[in-house]
Every structure is written in C-alpha cells, then in structure tokens.
Specification:
Shape: globular
Helix content: 40-55%
Radius of gyration: 22 Å
Order of helices and strands: HHHHHHEHEEHEHHEHEHHEEEHEEEE
Strand content: 15-25%
Distance between the termini: 67 Å
Bound molecules: guanosine-5'-triphosphate, magnesium ion
Largest sheet: 9 strands, mixed
CATH architecture of the largest domain: 3-Layer(aba) Sandwich
Structural class: alpha/beta
CATH superfamily of the largest domain: P-loop containing nucleotide triphosphate hydrolases
Number of domains: 2
Strand order of the largest sheet: 5-4-6-7-3-10-11-12-13
Length: 340
C-alpha cells in the first residue's frame, strides 16, 4: 500500500515538471516526482544530493531506498537532468582553477617545504598518528596561522578576516592553547579566539549535521578552515562489526564529500585528524596505519603521518599527495606552538 501511495505521489508531481537547467542550487526536494515522503526515504538511505542519485541504476536505488523500480527510474532520470554532471575541462581551465588555491603556512619551514608551500585550500588534508603524536596541537597551530594575513602565509583577507571552525569529537579544543599560540605570533589572543568557532560533536549524526551548520555560517563570514578532530572516533564507536561496515563507510563517505565541498566553495583548508590501528603483521617499518580504510585515504588529497621521535622531536611524513614526493620533516611542540 505504501508503494501505491508513493506511485500516486509521483504521478501528482510529474505534472509539475518544468524544464530544468543544470543549476547547482537544486536539491533532491526539487526532483520531479519526489514528495516529502520519498525525499525522506532517499535521505535516510544516504541519497541526499542529486549526483548521488544520478549515478545510480534503478534496481539498486529501488533496493537501497525501498522505492518501486519505476519510481526509482524516474527519479534517476530527473536527477541526471538536474545535476550538473559536468563535462571535461581543458588543462588550462584546471590550471586556472588551481590558481585560486591558497597555501596556509604551518609556521615550520621544513613542513611547508614538504608540502610544496603549505596546507592547500580546496582539499582535505588528513593528519594521522598515535595518541600524543601532535595532531591536536597541529590543528590549533594551523587555526592560529589561518588568522594571519595572506602575505604572511595565513588566509585572512585585509577586509575579511578568516574564521576557523572546529568540529571537536574528543573535547580537546583548548582556548588557552590558542591564546598562547596567538600571542607568540604577535596576534591579539582574544580577537583570534573570537574567530574560532567550536562545536562538540556528540555522535556521528551530530558530527555530520555540524557540517551543515558551517555551511550556514559561511554565508556571513569568511570561513577559511574547518578542523574535524577526530573524524572517525564516533563512527568507529557506533558502527561495530562487519555487518555495520558498509553502512559506516557510506556515511563516512558522505561526510567527507560534504567537507570537500565546503573546502571548494569557501576556498578553505579542511583538516581531519585520524587515529591509527596497530598492524601486527607488519614485518618492518612503522607498525601502524590510519583507520577508516580507503574512504578516508581517497578523500584526502594530502596525508600526513605524525610520530614521536627521540628528544621530544616529532616527525611529519607526507604519505600521499597528488603532486609531491614523499618525504619527512622534523618539528617540535613547544610553549609557543610548533617549531622547526
Ligand atoms: P590524541 O588526540 O590523543 O590521539 O593525540 P594527538 O595526536 O592529538 O596529540 P596532541 O596534539 O594532543 O599532542 C599532545 C602533546 O603535545 C603532549 O604530549 C605534549 O608533549 C605536547 N604539548 C601540548 N601542549 C604543550 C605545551 O603547551 N607545551 C609543550 N612544550 N608541549 C605541549
Ligand atoms: Mg588529539
């Protein structure tokens, strides 16, 4: 019966179809044949943007969103018309787009060199390492640095100061630490703290909702950096066992896609912190690797592995990057922040 109702809903709305161009503002609620009930089903199944639907086949969408196959087919056709499936860009266009990318300084020359100048906007950078390796310190330092003017390696515009958002899952944001680091850079600590926006994420669903909150905030202020520390702990704690893995990865994938979009739209740095798991079968090298699987490694353009070394030093290793060689840089965490 539910199915019948749904078909009716489709029929009713079918007449409202107008000629739609490829306007990126469209959402699944604008799809022909999708009323609130169907939209809800699609969202529940994780299909909350047009592109996600456009690339499906009807049988799979029907199965996953619990819709009729005919309905799915129509929805997919609608999504294909409305989503900007995009085409090919020339290398020159891509180069032009790349010119907008800014590089945020870490404040350590060796790390900036490792990264070809600094942390890039419009992409996700993953920091991973064991507890105490410096991920949270790193995120605090980058947040402070983002407040610096562009000409000093920061992301602040003269007339439009940078704002940084922290999605904090582990309750490790420390305003005192931001103040210390800001003072060390000659910045006004309270002014900097005002431009740090922090939300404690209580579970993975909340964590994902907070991305929407950043999106909303970004219409009024210059969002230049988003930190998610840590990106996976809630997902790991909530989705336990093999049976939950596919579901977890699907949600995580959506979360990362939304973060990537935020970085693109705002020309901002997205920094995600990730844990490591022990890899007891490793015969040599460091017996740890990042958790989260391919979803996280593919979503992150840059992956940096942090580890502790002798005499309080720490090593940052660039593990993966689209255009830079692998390499390492040594740094320390001191009162003033990160240093060479
Ligand atoms: P987890 O979140 O537990 O996985 O660790 P993490 O990788 O986030 O580590 P974090 O960035 O919290 O690093 C903690 C380390 O930074 C501490 O063990 C200290 O060695 C160092 N640290 C933190 N604050 C200060 C400080 O004010 N002065 C100095 N000298 N070191 C500090
Ligand atoms: Mg931490």
């Amino acid at each position: 019966m539910a199915k019948k109702k749904e078909e009716e809903e489709v029929e009713e709305q079918e007449e409202l179809v107008v000629n739609v161009g490829d306007d990126p503002e469209y959402t699944i609620d604008d799809l022909p044949g999708v009323g609130p009930a169907t939209a809800e089903k699609l969202r529940e199944a994780g299909f909350d943007d047009l592109m996600a639907i456009a690339v499906m086949n009807p049988a799979d969408l029907a199965d996953q969103a619990e819709l009729g196959e005919a309905v799915s087919s129509r929805i997919i056709n609608g999504a294909r018309k409305m989503a900007s499936i995009g085409g090919f860009l020339s290398g020159i266009d891509i180069l032009e787009k790349r010119r907008e990318v800014l590089k945020l300084t870490s404040g350590c020359q060796s790390i900036d060199e490792l990264l070809g100048g600094g942390f890039e906007t419009k992409s996700i950078t993953e920091l991973y390492g064991e507890f105490g390796s410096g991920k949270t310190q790193f995120s605090h330092q980058l947040a402070v640095n983002a407040m610096l003017p562009l000409k000093e390696g920061g992301l602040s515009d003269e007339n439009d100061p940078a704002h940084v958002f922290f999605i904090d899952t582990e309750d490790t944001f420390r305003p005192e630490r931001i103040r210390q680091m800001a003072a060390a850079k000659g910045l006004n600590p309270d002014e900097i703290l005002k431009r740090c926006h922090v939300a404690r994420a209580y579970n993975s669903a909340h964590q994902m909702l907070l991305v929407d909150e950043v999106k909303k905030a970004a219409s009024g202020i210059n969002v230049k950096m988003i930190v998610v520390d840590s990106v996976i702990s809630h997902f790991r704690a909530e989705f336990i066992g093999r049976g939950m893995l596919a579901n977890r990865q699907q949600k995580l994938n959506r979360h990362l896609k939304e973060l990537k979009q935020l970085s693109d739209v705002n020309n901002a740095v997205v920094l995600i912190c990730n844990q490591v798991m022990s890899k007891p079968d490793a015969m040599w090298g460091d017996p740890t690797k990042a958790v989260g699987g391919h979803i996280i490694s593919h979503a992150s353009a840059f992956r940096i592995y942090l580890r502790k070394a002798k005499a309080g030093r720490r090593i940052a290793r660039l593990v993966d990057s689209p255009n830079l060689p692998e390499g390492e840089a040594v740094f320390s965490v001191v009162e003033d922040g990160l240093t060479d």
